[in-house]
Amino acid sequence: MTMLKYTFLWMMILVSIGFFLVGVYKNIVSKIAHILWVNDPGPTGTASRDTRVRLPFASKETIFREAIIQKRIENRSAFLWFRHLLIAFGFVSLFVVAQLYALFIKVYPIAYFVSGVGRGYLKFSLELTGLVLFVGLTLGLIHRIMNAEQEKTFVDLRLLLLLWLVVATGFMTEILRFIIEPHDAFIAYSFVAAPVARAMAAFPWQWNTLYTVMWTTHAILIAFFFACIPFTKFVHIFVAPFGRSITMGQDTSRLKREKIAEGLL
């Protein structure tokens, strides 16, 4: 069963990466190239660098201001800024910890992380960052639903709900795993899933079947979410610093508009 699970997971990952790369090329690379390059009308018909527009290498200050602390959101509302920080910190931290977990336990096994306390610390970190992200997403969903008209141009409700479901099914998968494995060696490091699992274990349900269904659902949602990123507003988190760097000057802003206009004619 374990081999089947991971075969299915890697298939989903490969499909997700394929869609992700297509979206990155279509919605990021091609648009930046359209701004930075011009077609040579000469006999060669090749593309050449438009030297009037500078390369969009964002400065550290721009990345910090536009992608990390999101000053524009802070100017709109302290609540929205706090919500953003929870989501941004939770998402990035959870992603990093998940990669470390896979690296030190699956790819390059290290005893400290495979069977030592290091594994417990990683599991604790996964729950903590997941909880931070879940709280931020829940606040975001509530605010988006209550202020539908004002926020619809800023927040993609479908993507927000999708990420919320990814995190929720992740917690539920871990809860169900603890129910069927109540003597897990690292259950003491769990402060969310373990208490809920102990409370739910009294119900006479088909926990093994529910775990398989939940694990599969969680894997599909993760793959679908990452495949969707380049096609949704979420991509602005990654490209905002570059876009801001291109348009910071008045001349480059004007040239950008000219280039876009040329593409429409």
Please state the average pLDDT score: 80
Give the biggest sheet. 2 strands, antiparallel
**Poorly predicted ranges:** 260-265
Q: Which class do the helix and strand fractions yield?
A: mainly alpha
Percent in strands: under 5%
Indicate the overall shape. Answer: globular
Number of helices: 12
Helix content: over 70%
Strands, count: 2
Order of helices and strands: HEEHHHHHHHHHHH
The largest beta-sheet arranges its strands as 1-2
Cα-based radius of gyration, to the nearest Å:
23 Å
Features:
265 residues, mainly alpha, 12 helices, 2% strand, globular, disordered C terminus
Overall description:
With 265 residues, the protein is mainly α. The protein has a domain of 96 residues. Helices cover 75% and strands 2% of the residues. It is built from twelve helices and two strands, in the order αββααααααααααα. A two-stranded antiparallel ribbon has the order 1-2. The longest helix is centred in the N-terminal third of the chain and has 35 residues. It starts with a helix and ends with a helix.
Write a concise synopsis of the structure shown.
It contains 12 helices and 2 strands. The protein is an all-alpha fold and 265 residues long.
SSE layout and pairing:
Elements: H1 2-36, E1 37-39, E2 47-49, H2 60-68, H3 71-76, H4 78-107, H5 111-114, H6 117-146, H7 148-151, H8 157-180, H9 193-200, H10 207-228, H11 236-246, H12 250-264
Antiparallel strand pairs: 1-2
Helix pairs in contact: 1-10, 2-11, 4-6, 6-8, 8-9, 8-10
